[in-house]
Amino acid sequence: MKLKKLLILFLTLTLSVTGLAQLAPVQEPLVFENQLQQDRFNQLTEELRCLVCQNQNLADSDAQLAHDLRAEIHEMLLAGNSNDEIKQFMVERYGDFVLYRPPVQKNTYLLWLGPMMLLLGGGLILWVIIRKRSALFTANKDSDNQVS
Amino acid sequence: MNTRLIPLLGFVLLVVLLVVGLKIADRKTQIPSPLIGKPVPAFDLPVLANPGQKMSQQSLLGKYYLVNFWGSWCVTCRAEHPVVTELAKLKAVYIVGMNFRDESEDAIAWLQRWGNPYDVSLIDYDGRTSIDFGVYAAPETFLVDPHGTIVFKHLGQLTWEVVQTEILPRVADMETGS
Predict the structure, then answer these.
(1) Closest CB from B131, B132, B136 relative to A52
(2) Using the beta-carbon criterion (under 8 Å), do A54 and B29 form an inter-chain contact?
(3) Complex ipTM value
(4) Which residues, other chains included, contact B72 with Cβ-Cβ below 8 Å and sequence gap of 6+?
(5) Taking phi first (over 0 means left), then psi (-120 to 50 degrees means alpha), and beta for anything else, what does residue A8 get?
């Protein structure tokens, strides 16, 4: 039947078009030469901050700048730049702030050592309290003994 | 020391911490540019008014100039436009408009509609130059000295206050020869 054929043709065409529309990626995927490059790319974009939405890294962000910077990193990876060179490229332009893991230097000592100091301070306070309480406890016990 | 005072002391410390946090909260989104004191990034870009012609940072040596990153898509650029126009009227400093991530037709239409304060506008179509300048918002404005060194950067909308306190004094230094 001619009508049936036409209908099938129509359906295949419309369905394939809508299917394509769904499959079409928002941005064209980046192609790597090998798995190692892909892994390094994933690692770098995880560690670098998107400056437009400052609480997202480059891997997560959908901002135009993040997209461009991902393309830049991709290009540098293919060109054979090391991870450090790529990070250096970013720091030269956007400053240390772009690194989610900032370097240990004068103005970041507090950042790096702060948690350790808090832990030590807290531990010290806890230790003092426990010492006092146990001293109190033994003192009480002694006095109890004396009474009985 | 009276141990009862310890919680109070902790509370006071916490309050101080919070107050300091609130004080710097405004500046938290302002990231200091590592480019200040560094040579201006190299560029060689087509001129918006005449794309056959190109302009590089080399040809701008010898005078103070502003590099103002803008786009017709950028709402804040429209908001700062009157300030740039006022500054241009003073003819105190050469102003380079860096039209980035924009379609040239839109850019030209924007300039025709609101007026063109720029001595020259360059086309940074793919935003590559904006990345070299570490631009992550729009507008951003850089002041470059006659040696080609970036001496000042302003993030976001340029205000007349910034023009008066940061830009004009620096440019005036040059004129008096100091």
Answers:
(1) B136
(2) yes
(3) 0.75
(4) B99, B102, B103, B106, B107, B109, B110
(5) alpha
Q: Is A131 part of the contact surface with chain B (CB cutoff 8 Å)? A: no
Where does residue B107 rank: exposed (0-12), middle (13-18), buried (19+ CB within 10 A)? buried
Q: Kindly report the CATH number assigned to the domain that includes residue B125.
A: 3.40.30.10
Confirm if B94 and B171 have CB atoms less than 8 A apart.
Answer: no
Beta carbons of B131 and A54 less than 8 Å apart: no
User: With contacts defined as CB-CB under 8 Å, which chain B residues touch A72?
Assistant: 131
Instruction: For residues A139 and A4, give the distance between their C-alpha atoms in angstroms, rounded to a whole number.
Output: 99
Other beta carbons less than 10 A from residue A52's beta carbon: 15
Looking at the structure, tell me whether residues B24 and B77 fall in a common domain.
no
**Each residue of B119-130: pLDDT tens digit?**
999 999 999 999
Please state the pTM of the whole predicted model: 0.73
Same domain, residue pair B4 and B39 = no
Number of domains in chain B: 2
- The sheet with strand B140-144 has its strands ordered as B50-56, B44-47, B120-124, B94-100, B65-70, B140-144, B150-155
